[in-house]
TrEMBL record:
Entries under Gene3D superfamilies matching the protein: MFS general substrate transporter like domains
Keywords associated with the record: Cell membrane, Glycoprotein, Membrane, Sugar transport, Transmembrane, Transmembrane helix, Transport
Domain Major facilitator superfamily (MFS) profile, first and last residues per copy: 21-455
Location relative to the cell: Cell membrane
PROSITE patterns in alphabetical order: MFS
Transmembrane regions: 21-45, 65-87, 94-112, 118-141, 153-173, 179-197, 256-279, 299-319, 326-348, 368-395, 407-425, 431-451
GO molecular function: transmembrane transporter activity
Membrane topology summary: Multi-pass membrane protein
Protein name (database record): Major facilitator superfamily (MFS) profile domain-containing protein
Organism annotation: Callosobruchus maculatus (Southern cowpea weevil)
Main location as per UniProt: membrane
């Protein structure tokens, strides 16, 4: 009898208790990611309306559209360090609820703007809120989920970002600008209503010495019958790893932490080097530059949003079964092939190496290639790059290091985009596509030989592997993901 009870308790621990509350909390927090997707894709389908002066008569020029995007990114960069401090002081949940305030202020300023500089300031303020969600949502999702479903729950974040892109694409096309801005304001209201009643992060509760509150959070997330003893002990041990270090950047003295920062930052950099900012954010410009009509351009933006949203749903089903590395390798492989084909097409199109008749026969190549790019990036690269930082850092430094990686993320997006624009103007736009293809190959190498597989592992296990360099050159023959998953099930 005692053996059966012991086996039953072990099964409950392995499965992480009742999963429904975790999924509910994961969905609630990641509704905030829709706000990020909307902010990133805000100009995608309203650029022509802005240039026509449909927002309070303000005439927006092409360079102004560039600054509308850049100002949001600057706001994201400015906010990362204050958010890092807030996450470890007031906690994950209050920080995210506060992050909605800049969105309300920013979109309200846009509605009543009478000059383009007011729009710039509004986008800067919106960036503060976007940074809050990009730092907090994956962090909170990873800390409430059991390791058996952590990848699935954290994957909600990127899926909801993709839904935000689709939301902006559709409503930006269908609605007048002011109504579209009001539609953008609705989403943070929905987030607040859904997330307000969710439990706080048990990791932060333990970190601040509120053990009883941490137990209550674990019971709310796992069910009242869940044996939280082992999980609570694990959180305490992980937080005690470096309890004497109090300086904000003191953890950078640890070589293992530096390796983790390198891994998470190189993935974030690679997602821009393979063309994410240009291809995903400026879909309409990419399609139009291939010589397609305005009708095709508008529909391609909406279809792109649908493909991204559908592809980002795939990891939710399979990432905890097949592993993160596999998704990375497949994602980079797809972007390698699709960008190489687009590079060849641009070479023939821009450099007049083919007749118009030949180009008409080949016009399906850019559309099909873009569709595969959207799917490969959304299912693999973008999703895994977002979750890496919250899976490889131990609990005592996870919030701060996540914010450091987000600072690098937003900074590199501006730098890489600027470099690629100048490169395209100087050497031709086909050069950019060949660069995207080259860095996709680099990504495949990084994914196979450097990326630390985190599937079915606690974060401290992954960190210890990186500290001892056991993650380097690990292959599926050494650690089969599917077999590891099945062993945990039995």
């Amino acid at each position: 009898m005692s053996k059966k009870c012991e086996q039953s308790a072990r099964e409950r621990m392995l499965s992480g208790g009742n999963r429904a509350p975790v999924y509910a909390a994961g969905v609630a927090v990641c509704v905030g990611a829709i706000c990020n997707g909307i902010a990133l894709a805000w100009t995608t389908n309203i650029s022509k309306k802005l240039e026509a002066g449909q927002l309070n008569g303000i005439i927006i020029e092409q360079m102004d559209l560039h600054w509308i995007g850049v100002m949001m990114t600057i706001g994201c960069c400015v906010a990362t360090i204050p958010i890092a401090i807030a996450l470890d002081t007031i906690g994950r949940k209050p920080t995210m609820l506060i992050a909605t305030l800049p969105l309300y202020v920013g979109y309200t300023l846009i509605v009543f703007a009478r000059h383009k500089y007011i729009i710039f300031v509004a986008r800067l303020i919106i960036g503060l809120g976007v940074s809050g969600f990009s730092c907090c949502c994956p962090l909170y999702a990873s800390e409430i989920a059991h390791k058996s479903i952590r990848g699935r729950v954290v994957s909600f974040y990127f899926m909801f970002v993709s839904i935000g892109f689709l939301y902006a694409n559709v409503f930006g096309w269908l609605l007048p600008i002011k109504l579209f801005v009001f539609a953008c304001l609705i989403v943070p209201v929905i987030f607040t209503a859904m997330f307000f009643f969710q439990p706080k992060s048990p990791v932060h509760e333990v970190q601040t010495g509120r053990i009883h509150q941490a137990i209550s959070a674990l019971k709310a997330l796992r069910g009242s019958n869940y044996d939280f003893t082992a999980e609570l002990k694990h959180i305490k041990l992980e937080l005690a790893r470096n309890a004497g270090e109090r300086l904000f950047f003191g953890e950078l003295k640890d070589k293992a932490v530096l390796r983790c920062l390198f891994i998470s930052n190189i993935l974030l950099l690679l997602k821009y080097l393979v063309g994410a900012a240009q291809v995903l954010t400026f879909t309409s410009e990419v399609v139009k530059s291939c010589g397609f009509s305005d009708a095709v351009v508008k529909w391609s933006v909406v279809i792109a949003g649908l493909i991204r949203a559908a592809a980002s749903f795939i990891p939710i089903i399979y990432i905890d079964r097949l592993g993160r590395r596999l998704f990375l390798v497949v994602g980079f492989s797809i972007t390698f092939v699709s960008t190489a084909l687009l590079g060849v097409y641009y070479t023939f199109y821009d450099r007049k190496l083919a007749s118009p008749r030949t180009l008409d026969m080949l016009e399906w190549i850019p559309l099909i290639s873009l569709a595969f790019y959207w799917a490969g990036y959304s299912a693999g690269i973008g999703n895994v790059a977002c979750m890496t930082a919250v899976e490889i850092f131990p609990a005592d430094i996870r919030a701060r290091c996540k914010c450091i990686t987000e600072l690098f993320n937003w900074s590199s997006s501006v730098v890489v985009a600027t470099v690629y624009v100048q490169m395209g103007l100087t050497y031709g736009w086909d050069t950019n596509w060949y660069c995207y293809s080259f860095f996709s190959l680099v990504g495949i190498v990084i994914a196979i030989f450097v990326y630390p597989e985190a599937t079915m592992k606690d974060t401290h296990e992954v960190f210890e592997e990186i500290a001892e360099r056991k993650h380097i050159f690990r292959s599926y023959s050494v650690e089969p993901i599917l077999i590891t998953h099945l062993q945990h099930k039995t």
